[in-house]
Design goal:
Layout: H1 5-17, H2 38-45, E1 73-76, H3 91-103, E2 107-110, E3 114-118, E4 122-124, E5 129-132, E6 139-143, H4 147-151, E7 172-174, H5 177-188, E8 207-210, E9 220-222, E10 234-239, H6 246-251, H7 256-260, H8 267-270, E11 275-285, E12 288-291, E13 306-308, E14 314-315, E15 318-326, E16 341-346, E17 348-349, E18 352-359, E19 363-368, E20 374-381, E21 387-392, E22 399-405, E23 431-437, E24 453-459, E25 480-486, E26 504-508, E27 529-531, H9 544-549
Parallel strand pairs: 1-2, 2-5, 3-6, 4-7, 5-15, 6-15, 7-16, 14-17, 15-18, 16-19, 18-20, 19-21, 20-22, 22-23, 23-24, 24-25, 25-26, 26-27
Antiparallel strand pairs: 8-13, 9-12, 10-11, 10-13, 11-12
Length: 551
């Protein structure tokens, strides 16, 4: 179910009360104390426009709602032929139950305790459908085939023999039906399927209205023609880069460093623009439109700002209370994953995953052109994992909280790589909060991710970042790492004051620079901030995301 008009108007009222200008209302969180960073005191006064810290207080499903939606039970997979014997292929029955719930207009599909073998992809491809087990310790889906076997082999978007299953697709796949069918059709035709919000050819959209110039952090915009806009509607803000790449420079904070950077040969990065940001409309008053969240970037005339349609999104759906376990197999050499992948949300908005464990995965949990989704109480465990979590292809405003990445249960094969919590491809305003990372790193795969937050996380920092040179910078502006406990003293991708422009590193353990391949992409002053270095347990507030929600 979409967010109600009452809830949207309430959120708009909050924005109007704050003036939509970066002036915060009074809040008790993080009151001044000896361990309160100067950055936090600054942020409380200008929460929507701070140069180093992004506003992420409304990240996640329904603006970060504590209580996820509960839908009435409409189907039990056993009634469609599923059998908890660990041998019968129950995937067809589970998919039939999901389809029946979709035809009924939505609802919850229950999976009782036990182990259910699946030999196909579980497709949550109807909005307002929830797949719910009896708990991650009680219900197991045992996947005996991988995505290469099930769907076929398709190569890299950029040539070579790389497996694209390293960064796409899940054995439980949340995506709208049209997107699923077009994706699979393209794969089987040996064509690269575009994964974003505007279709396989990026032309399955039309302009709704032009947008007048506005500043990053504004909650209200002025449009040319409001006639097709309604409160509660999901629209796409579309910004197109110009020949001088001033949009990409703006994502990096601007200034001499980004201006001097060579952008034209970054072909992978430039394939990600236009920047596409889905958002719900909270209120329409004449030509004034109030948004569910503040603008992520300036809307400047040279970038042709407009609100457009998009491919139909999956909304209001979720997966809860189960373990997805793949057949235990050795991890493949780097970028040759066969697709023993966990759960992926693609072109999904206001969707969620709660109390789910993925075991023996090539790649655990993925967000692909997914926005305003919540992953809560998730865990990656088992023999190996290339990407425990990946966030890519323009994924925005997502919340990953109370997550765990366990140590591998088998030796690491040669020529393999471990990343961690990944973000790339112009993804922005995502949050990773309250994490226990017993392996991995804070991975950027280049592709200019910006305005993302990692907070209140313990990490054994033993992974490496990915991404090739054509993907451009590791970081854009307003990356923040806040209260990070590093158990092995390794600096890579965690201490970022020497790497990310207009960034903040606050309250992390002292770390050492060794085996470090990370170098800044921009010359000159990065305008970065470092506070309470060596004191992660002392920083107040301890969790940046939760403190922002209280503002």
């Amino acid at each position: 179910m979409s967010m109600t008009r009452r809830a949207l108007l309430a959120s708009a009222a909050v924005a109007v009360a704050a003036g939509g200008t970066g002036t915060a209302v009074a809040a008790g969180a993080g009151l001044a104390s000896p361990d309160t960073p100067v950055l936090w005191r600054e942020f409380r006064h200008t929460p929507f426009t701070h140069p180093q810290i992004p506003y992420v207080g409304r990240a996640g499903c329904h603006g970060g709602a504590v209580r996820l939606p509960r839908r009435p039970v409409v189907a039990d997979v056993r009634d469609f032929g599923a059998v908890a014997d660990g041998m019968t292929d129950s995937a067809p029955a589970i998919n039939r139950a999901i389809a029946a719930a979709g035809r009924a207009g939505g609802g919850t599909v229950t999976i009782p305790p036990g182990t259910f073998r699946i030999a196909d992809v579980i497709r949550v491809d109807r909005s307002n459908v929830v797949l719910r087990g009896a708990g991650s310790g009680r219900t197991t889906l045992y996947a005996t085939r991988n995505l290469t076997e099930l769907i076929g082999v398709y190569g890299s978007r950029y040539g070579g023999d790389k497996s694209a299953w390293s960064w796409a697709g899940g054995l439980i796949w949340l995506a709208p039906r049209a997107r699923w069918h077009s994706f699979v059709t393209a794969i089987r035709a040996k064509a690269w399927p575009f994964e974003g919000w505007t279709g396989n050819r990026r032309d399955e959209w039309r302009t709704l209205t032009r947008v007048a110039p506005a500043r990053q952090g504004s909650w209200t915009i002025t449009v040319t023609d409001p006639s097709s806009l309604r409160p509660g509607a999901l629209v796409l803000l579309r910004l197109t880069d110009d020949t001088d790449h001033t949009l990409l420079q703006h994502m990096c904070g601007g200034g001499p460093g980004p201006e001097a950077y060579v952008w034209d040969d970054k072909t992978k990065l430039t394939s990600y623009v236009p920047y596409e940001w889905p958002v719900r409309i909270a209120r329409v008053h004449g030509r004034k439109v109030t948004l569910e969240r503040p603008l992520p970037l300036d809307a400047r005339p040279e970038w042709s700002p407009q609100l457009t349609t998009h491919v139909p999104a999956l909304t209001g759906s979720g997966v809860e209370g189960l373990t997805l376990e793949a057949v235990e197999t050795p991890q493949q050499p780097h970028l040759l994953d066969q697709g023993h992948n966990g759960i992926v949300l693609q072109c999904a908005y206001d969707c969620w995953v709660d109390d789910v464990t993925v075991r023996h995965a090539d790649n655990g949990f993925g967000l692909v052109a997914a926005s305003a989704c919540t992953l809560r109480r998730t865990r990656v465990t088992g023999h190996a994992s290339h990407h425990p979590y990946f966030c890519r292809e323009g994924s925005h405003d997502n919340l990953i909280e109370d997550f765990t990445i366990e140590e591998r249960t088998s030796p690491v094969p040669p020529n393999t790589q471990l990343h961690g919590i990944n973000v790339e491809g112009l993804s922005s305003y995502n949050v990773w909060s309250r994490g226990d990372m017993r392996m991995g790193t804070f991975d950027s795969h280049r592709g200019l991710p910006f305005a993302n937050v990692r907070t209140d996380i313990t990490v054994n920092n033993n992974g490496r970042h990915g991404g090739d040179a054509s993907a451009g910078p590791l970081f854009g502006a307003r990356f923040t790492h806040w209260n990070i406990r590093v158990t092995n003293s390794r600096a890579g991708l965690v201490r970022i004051d020497g790497l990310a422009p207009y960034s903040a590193t606050v309250g992390i353990d002292e770390v050492r620079e060794f085996d470090q391949i990370d170098v800044p992409d921009f010359t000159g002053d990065l305008h970065t901030r470092l506070e309470l270095y060596g004191s992660p347990h002392a920083v107040r507030p301890q969790n940046l995301y939760e403190a922002q929600r209280e503002l």
